[in-house]
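Record 1 of the preview.
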Amino acid sequence: MSYRLLLINPWIYDFTAYDLWSKPLGLLYLGSFLRSQGFEISFIDCLDKYAAGQKVKVKKYGVGNLPRTIVEKPAILKHIPRHYARYGIPEEHFIKQLKEHQEVDAVLVTSIMTYWYPGVKKVVELVRKYLPDKPVILGGIYASLCPEHAKEVIQPDYIITGPGEIKVLKLLADLFSIPFNSFKIPATLDDYPYPAFDLLNHPDYFIVMTSRGCPYDCSFCAQKRIAMRFTQRNPERVVEEINDQYRRFRLRDFAFYDDALFIAKQKHIEVILQKLLQKRMPLRLHTPNGLFVKYVDRFLAQLMFETNFKTIRLSFETANADRWSDMYSKVSNQAMIEAVEHLKAAGYRAKDLEAYVIMGLPGQTLEEIIASIIFVNNLGVQVRLASFSPIPGTREFERAVKMGLIEPDIDPLLTNKSIFPLSNDKISYDTFRKIRKFANILNEAAKNELTMFGDESLGLAVKRVVRDMQ
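->
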């Protein structure tokens, strides 16, 4: 007997949301894996930009806005002076699709950001209403980081935490009385089938993951709680996947989802890029996750340029040396300078590059944030300002609790990076918004190859003016 499973990617409820190479890769991997084990797979994507005749503007490289519907803000967020919205397909379209899946045997729902749980809650409520007798299995990042909150608020029948494929398979074996030893369990990452991109209605780009996990343990990151230990795939198999998916979908834009793409670079990413060059596919490559700058040497930079990396985001975080060891950082100011120089030597203009700078950490001063922004601008690089979100289980979360900045049982809605969770008397919500605008102004200058504070005489003049104004 073949069992039928319905996979659901929920709505996003937030102040802002954007399709920036954002696809539920874990759910797509799970779908292809379960299909390979004999299950029939259906899929509802609540973030489908093209569903129900929605009109969205797809920008360069396939990214773009998500359709949104303004909704009432949760009471706990009433103080935020911004519209709150549901991003994705109309509710009636989702209900229509649910009604078409009356014959499924179980429903599997993923979850991403912890503060996006209202979308998960709404999906499960509607599943209970229209598919009342179907077991609901919840997995994903929110479920892994906040399992007790999910049990209380979402109330699924089952929760899967951490890497899900094998756990879900064992659960389904129990639910349907299938001998678990009848399944074929992958021995390596490369034994898993490619993610089921065929389930998507109208993909504009493709996502590839060459490894899982991360060997680092940064103070603000929860990777250790949601992923398996760091494991890299066979580079030749990665190239095969890219080649096969390109020929099948004819998509030119490929985004790497790795958290540690450049680890063991000579045996991994350099091999991948060299073999891609041999294939001569007209690809455009993107790295939405931060790249570790200390691994960017002249050879790797040249390979990146030749293989047509179009989106390069460098993991910088801060220019403050005291915080590097505290954060278990992967960078230094000198390493950042050298990485930019290597990339420029390869053919990139500095303005083609972006660097992540983090703001809003517990105890972080306004001066540290501004100094980091100016440091990046002085290199001619655009600042990608990353607002801090206190993630349960991380050292920065525990630090924020000890400093009295948040409660240990804080509602995940209050950890939303868009509301600057650790705003305080010294750095207010309004100040954080001004910092973001300041970074945007410098980015416009960088696009025109202007480094606003890199000119010594200009810098001295600014200091004199500020002094005279005080």
